[in-house]
Amino acid sequence: MALVLVLIALGSIAFHVLSPWWWTPIASNWGYIDTTLIITFWITGAVFTILVLFVAYCVARFRHRPGQKASYEPESRRLEGWLTAITAIGVAAMLAPGLAVWAQFVRVPADAAEVEIVAQQWRWSYRLPGADGRLGAAATQFVSDENPLGLDPHDPAGKDDVIVDGDDLHLPLARPVKALLRSFDVVHNFYVPEFRAKMDIIPGMVTYFWFTPTRTGTFEAICNEVCGTNHYAMRGRVVVEPEPQYRSWLDQQKTFSNFAARPERAPRDAAPRRVADGR
Amino acid sequence: MVDTPIGAAGPLPGSEPDEAELYHPHSWLTRYVFSQDAKVIAIQYSGTALAIGLVALVLSWLIRLQLGFPGLFPFLGPAEYYQIITMHGMIMVVYLLTAVFLGGFGNYLIPLMIGARDMVFPYVNMLSYWIYLLAVLVLVASFFAPGGPTGAGWTLYPPQAILSGTPGQEWGIVLMLASLILFIIGFTMGGVNYVVTVLQARAPGMTLMRMPLTIWGIFTATVLALLAFPALFVGAVMMLLDRLLGTSFFMPMIIEAGQRLHYGGGTPILFQHLFWFFGHPEVYIVALPAFGIVSDLISTHARKNIFGYRMMVWAIIAIGGLSFVVWAHHMYVSGMNPYFGFFFATTTLIIAVPTAIKVYNWVLTLWRGDIHLTVPMLFAIAFIVTFLNGGLTGLFLGNVVVDVPLSDTLFVVAHFHMVMGVAPILVIFGGIYHWYPKVTGRMLDERLGLLHFWVTFLGAYLIFFPMHYLGLLGVPRRYFETTGLGFIPASAASLNAFISVVAFVVGAAQVVFVANLIRSLRHGVPAGGNPWHATTLEWQTPDTPPRHGNWGARLPVVYRWPYDYSVPGAAEDFVPQNQPAHAAGAAS
Amino acid sequence: MSLVLVYLAGLGAVSGRWLARQHLAAKPWLSAGPLLSRPAAGGSESAARLGLGAFLAVVGLLFALLVAAYGMRVPPGSAGLPLDPRLLWLTTGFLGLASLLLHRAERAAHRGADEDARANLLAAAAASLVFLGGQGLAWRLIWEAGAGRTVDAAGSFFVLITLLHGLHLAGGLAALARIACGAARTGSPAGLVRSIGLCTLYWDALLVIWLVAFGILFRTPWSGLIDVLCRPPA
Is B15 part of the contact surface with chain C (CB cutoff 8 Å)? Predict the structure, then answer.
């Protein structure tokens, strides 16, 4: 048993060091999250190794032999006090950076550009502000075939909003983005592993999170809250590119006003819809 | 509540069996089927839970078939996959773990360990089991209902749980909710019973601080369960009304597949609050009895008193109290007010301190002990390792910002399987190997036990330890398949296949265990009354297995705490709790 | 959820007070020897009372959660229910009356006036049945007015809360009927006092729960207090 315990401790460390499975290369400003995670790994890894090796030592050293008798020691206030204090310090060392980073996570920078991500079973759509730089009002009750994202037709701010339906989302490099999340049907979650950040999307309310893309490339977005039979197939893509390319892409997109004028569009059911016809 | 020396108080109250109070079976049917004896009810509870647990085990094999070898098994489609993971999770958490620890171990051990003749309300206790059985049957019925069981995930989040995009929307979810409601009603009956029994029916001399930690764990967990299950009850009833009567408690305005539904105005997050208000204490409902049992296993088999008994009791109470103010750490990325994150991260990490103290004390109990590596002891040590591992990864997920990338990935799956799957189940096994001789009078076969132990422990570790790293990579949980995702390297598939193979082996080892349980009933070595030389009261019964009423003519009188092992100067290395001071030689 | 947390804190205070008297700081390994830690009197009477108390604590939490859910779900200032509140004031009166009659029955049984106790019991049962009937009528009126499925969910909560409350009271009535029958058969006054005492406690608790629920579902003099406790801070 003692030997096995030593092997478990050392094996776990070896696996940690040698594992080819590690996080994806980061592509956003949330390197702090990775740092906090590394701190947590060091602290918990040390505790795990020490305790398991100690158990292994006890099992080897104090294993029953004829004539052996256990010592009698109900408690030691001093030892327990020290252990409690050390634990509390270790916990604080993980909590403090965690809360500091969380404070940044909840405070969206004032200059963040708003992007709306709309989820429905089982596909993604996006909306970007038009020339006026802000998104118009939207609500589930306005959704129709001509108005797939449910923009308020009476809000002038929404007329020039760019609507990306059934295509990739493009984002400019190094500009903070506030992602506003909306859903028409069930709870979803927008997750790009390389960005680290994610948030649930709750029908009936608008949730948000923010990040700054720091690396160009095409990244996969997945739904990360079980949302029905085809949850696993609800995928999208985010393209991060330098400002000029982004501008030229944006200019090619359709705005809400010319979207509404053209009823014939790409079929809405790009993603598989139901169990029966999904398989 | 005055501590009075025994002589001054005259004859002890309750030391004669109160014939009018004690229930007596009159026929085979009332003795073994509709029995009101807590020991029979305990076996009924455990048997039912193990049976449904085997179903969940088979379901986990199906999950691993799909994850390890996607596409190879055409009978597994996405709808079936989601139904399987939902039922696996729900059965394991509620119908197996909760039922075995409280209904099984609780019923068997509470009266015996505190020196009572039976539960205080035996009739209610019996009803509790039969309602539990009904709940299990309703759950099983959903497998055969049109459309199959629900596939909403064990968290049953609305709105998807009751919409047509989720499998089992017609009957499965209704039966699931009905089954949960029944389970909670049945549990409340049992739970009130356990609490009152611990408070009222302790043998003379059994003060709270002389109770074994097993009883402390089960007692506190029962209190938690009584206070946590109402939240699930409320959530389940409200969702049932949403589904059946068309109310909109949790349902906002919804456009599903181009159709506008008649719902409107509801808040799905409300359900999440109710669910996790139950869901987090539920973790401790499972963990606290495991903590208690493992403390007693370690102490008995290391022939040493549990180190820091008082600290252990306080830690159990502290964990129980704190577990009600951490629920929203399951909801960091749920879209609730993000400022809640500060509060819940802090409370969650604070709870790590009493938990860590418990781990230290288990380990320090081994230090300078006289460790007998019996099968129960092996399981207890394995529990320390897996619980430690799972508890430490909990620090990742509890720390709000680290949780953001990890939530809903395989890291979470690995974490909770390690901490509230593998670890408590190892304790259940350890407890069964430990108390089986008391229940049946015979020992379980040791060689089969060792085989079962090594395969289960090492296998479970091999399954769940590497899985963390897949989660770190970003592999999402509850994915029918991950093919086509570029950020997941091909090597992840081979790791998944490896995990699946190990899972099949571990599952097969449980067959050895069940065979051992059955075989040893007849062919086990006769155990005698106290094979482990343990101090606690259940080993001091006049008969093994204990008869109805447990104690024969006179209730035991408790003279000491439950951990008098290796007392200096005592003749033997254990002094039973009911042994008077003068008989124990020079013992304090 | 603040109402729930306040409720739990209350329970915690009660159990904390109790725990404080249990010598949790004692060092049990130092004090071998018999200790009579149990009050000599006790037995099944206090066990039944304690059991009922524990059950009521759970039931109370159940309704506290419902009221808290109401606070989180129903927008403040939502239109009232399409129901004349005087009907509910009337049913509330009957529930209060039932509770009062049970108290009188308990006192009568205590005196040994069995006839008197039985009459009061019957009257209490009748008053409770009238309450249930009234609640059922209100339930129907709300449902038929279509208010049970509105967007603000106030009517849905009314339906849900009265339903659960009524089921609990119906369970209590079943127990009361058993007690009354048993008392008529055996005529054991001591057992009767005990059972009526338990019923009285149960009815009182259900009355309090109903008053809280009534206060949040309708405008009552005490509604403001409940709003403070269960609405999330604006």
Answer: no
C81 located within any domain: no
Residue A77 has pLDDT above 80, yes or no: yes
Q: What is the CA radius of gyration of chain B?
A: 24
Lookup: tokens for B441: 């009078």
Among C29, C73, C151, C152, which would you mutate to test the A interface (most chain A Cβ atoms within 10 Å of its Cβ)?
C29
Confidence label for B7 from pLDDT (cuts 50, 70 and 90): very low
Residue of chain C with shortest Cα separation from A72: C29
Determine if the pTM surpasses 0.90.
yes
Strands A235-241 and A169-172 come out as parallel
pLDDT for B346 beyond 60: yes
pLDDT at A278 over 80: no
pLDDT band at B435 (very low <50, low <70, confident <90, very high): very high
Instruction: Specify the 3-state DSSP secondary structure of A151.
Output: strand
Confirm if A169 and A115 have CB atoms less than 8 A apart: yes
- Closest CA of chain A from C70, distance in Å: 17
Rg (CA), chain C: 21
CA B571 to chain centre: 38
Going by CATH, does the domain composed of A113-278 fall within 2.60.40.420? yes
- Calpha distance B173→B122 (Å, rounded): 33
Q: What is the pLDDT of residue C59?
A: 95
Tell the burial category of B260 from Cβ atoms under 10 Å away from its Cβ (0-12, 13-18, 19+).
Answer: middle
B171, B206, B241 — which closes off a domain?
A: B206
Which residues does chain B have within 8 Å of residue C157's beta carbon, measured at their own beta carbons? 249
Instruction: Report the pLDDT value the prediction gives residue C231, as an integer from 0 to 100.
Output: 66
| Closest residue of chain A to B482, computed from CA coordinates | A232
Q: How many CA atoms lie within 13 A of A214 on its CB side?
A: 13
pLDDT of residue A279: 30
**The domain that contains C97 carries what CATH number?**
1.20.120.80
Which residues constitute the domain of residue C157?
86-234
User: Is the pLDDT reported for residue B431 higher than 60?
Assistant: yes
pLDDT average, residue stretch C19-47? 70
**Residues near A22 by Cβ (< 8 Å), separated by ≥ 6?**
B469, B472, B473
CA distance A160 to A156: 8
**Do B536 and B562 contact (CB within 8 A), yes or no?**
yes
User: Taking CB atoms and an 8 Å limit, are C69 and B234 in contact across chains?
Assistant: yes
Distance (Å, rounded) from C-alpha B39 to C-alpha B36?
9
Residue B450 Cα to chain centre, angstroms: 23
Alpha-carbon distance values, B45 to B99, C165, C166 (Å): 7, 30, 31
Distance from CA of B525 to the nearest CA of C (A): 34
**C-beta atoms of B252 and A204 within 8 A:** yes
Touching partners of C (3+ C-beta pairs < 8 Å) = A, B
Mean pLDDT of chain C: 85
Domain boundary assignment for chain A: 2-62+79-106, 113-278
Cβ-defined contact of A23 to B478 (cutoff 8 Å): no
Q: How many domains does chain C have?
A: 1
Helical segments of A19-162, H only:
31-61, 77-106
Distance CA C219, CA A266 (A): 53
Residue B235 lies in a domain: no
What range does the domain containing B546 cover? 527-588
The whole-number pLDDT of residue B587 equals 40
| Reported confidence tier of residue A233, pLDDT bands at 50, 70, 90 | very high
Give all strands of the β-sheet with A217-223 in edge-to-edge order.
Answer: A169-172, A235-241, A217-223, A188-191, A198-201
Strands A162-165 and A217-223: unpaired
CB neighbour list of residue B71: distance below 8 Å, 6 or more residues apart:
B481, B483
Which residue in chain C is spatially nearest to A77 when comparing CA positions? C27
Number of neighbours of residue C41 by Cβ within 10 angstroms? 8
Number of domains in chain B: 2
Residue B202 lies in a domain: yes
